[in-house]
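Changelog entry

Holo records now carry the ligand SMILES as an explicit input line rather than a separate metadata file. Below, a converted record for zinc ion, shown in the new format.
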Amino acid sequence: MTSAYEEIRRSGGHILAYTNPRIFSLRSIYWQRMGESLATRTASGDVHKESYSDGADFAVVCPAASAWRGLFADYAEMLAGQYSADLIYFDQVASAPPVQCFAGGHEHYDPGLWNTHYMGLLDEAANRVNAVSRDASFCIEGCGDLFIRRAPFQSYIGFMISGTRFNFPELFKYTFPEAVQADVVYYQEETPGSMYADFLPSAKRPTIRACLERGIMVGDFFGVMDQVLDDTEWWAEAQDLLRLRRLMAPWIARAKFRDSADVIEGGGLDVRTFQREGSPSHVVVVARGGADEEIPVRIRLHGRTASGAFALTEGGQVRLAMSQAADGVSISVRAGTLSVSIIQLDGDGAA
Ligand SMILES: [Zn+2]
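Structure line, unchanged by the conversion:
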């Protein structure tokens, strides 16, 4: 594993190490020695079980069992310390249903404090990780504001859980701007026979592209589920978008997602903004839709004035036409594809 991690680093990659602190396989050779005493139990004393797509049975383990918390704290410390993992992924924490636990011998006084105990599990693991690494962080499956303090990266399969209509990513980002959503994208039609075919809804390429664009517009991180990453047309398209996301990264760092709250006029485009106060101050304008032409977009600056505007492109920064009015500033955005523009603000501090 060490050499595999080193190879990833040499090629400029970062490492997310996966583990699941929620379930325990009933086929494991450690089930009787370890799993059984840590499993959640119903009021009648039965082990709470779940079955997954290949028919494998798992027990749901109790996050209040101290040996279980200790195991994952050890594991996280090892991944961050010895292996220098950047992110430690705890599967299912905020996505799978909570389970009441009536087992004896676990550190709980009430059967229904599931989230409290998961917070305890994350606290213990994070304290150990922070002692050995300044940079490592946690990612959990699912979005849960309760867990942001310990797991600022929160993952989901955007298209599967929210389609393209319900604006969950925007709502969650606007409400909890400190959370980084990690969207897992896939293009099922392109990968027939995928191991995920049973539970992932299939979608046309424009739909998957719209999901990827929506994710970029809220500053998501991305994972991919496709097992075939041949250089198809879709992946060329996706890679163009992901390069734009990489260009955005320094500009949205420490900036607050404002959704469409500051958009006075969007020229028919779908427009989102991030605002960064401090030094320097700027507004990031992400827009999509429209024809391939320059379209004026007007943004509210809350009493601030702008000193300039430019578009982020792979070739560098391209200066944009700009005009100021009493209620904000207008910039000409190049539409037709996703665009990212920066409005630089005069002076620093609040106004
Ligand atoms: Zn328990």
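Spot-checked after migration. The first helix runs from residue 2 to 10. Helices lie at 2-10, 31-38, 66-81, 114-132, 158-162, 168-175, 205-217, 233-252.
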